[in-house]
């Protein structure tokens, strides 16, 4: 039997505040201009110079500038990540290709789609969460890659 | 003009939300995905919190004839669950698990000056371009 142990030391209740803010940003975009906050979709539209809209460019600019804005109030939170080039490149390729093939990521399916109770988004969310978990399980506990 | 300002504001708020939530710390994301290790469940609160607000927003949107700027509110109309959706979500999940970065946090990490994001995001762009190139053949 595999044991599930929750690491309460690492638990950060403030994550809820971050989540609520993601919801607010999503709703502002939906009610404000009638568009879905799907990051992979908005970002990929920047790769289609003939079809991209100015608000999409500005949304991405907002994401890039957000750490600067955050930094004005308090120091950026801890960021710890892999330094393996093959892992970063492979993961980037998979995330780019996969989010386009599957029409969305953690934002478009995970928040917007699930909020619309879209069965398509629910299936996508369960699938990428499950495969993310399996990847960490195998990559960390068997291969020692992660 | 207003449309662009709303786009910028939403991007800024989304980015700050990601930073506050812990989603921009790839090790924390992997801790959330590591169900059978020392499981950090914090990030369940991120999707939960986002969903609570977004569900209310969607209900309001359904009762609005147009958006604030007068444009139609565009909701995706595709409902089909097919191989493309499943394989796409699967590949995305594997990539997400490998380094703990999904597209939003990856873009925010560019602005945070994290060098790994300058490797990950160009690779993500290449992945997207490969899809664009293959798209006509995938049907």
Automatic annotation (TrEMBL), chain A:
Membrane topology: Multi-pass membrane protein
Pfam family, one: Sulf_transp
Keyword ATP-binding: no
Top-rank taxon, per record: Bacteria
Keyword Cell inner membrane found: yes
Alphabetic keyword roster: Cell inner membrane, Cell membrane, Membrane, Transmembrane, Transmembrane helix, Transport
TM region(s), chain numbering: 12-33, 54-73, 85-102, 123-143
Cited InterPro entries: Sulf_transp_TsuA/YedE
Localization: Cell inner membrane
Similarity section: Belongs to the TsuA/YedE (TC 9.B.102) family.
Name of the molecule in the record: Transmembrane protein
Species in which this protein is naturally found: Psychrobacter alimentarius
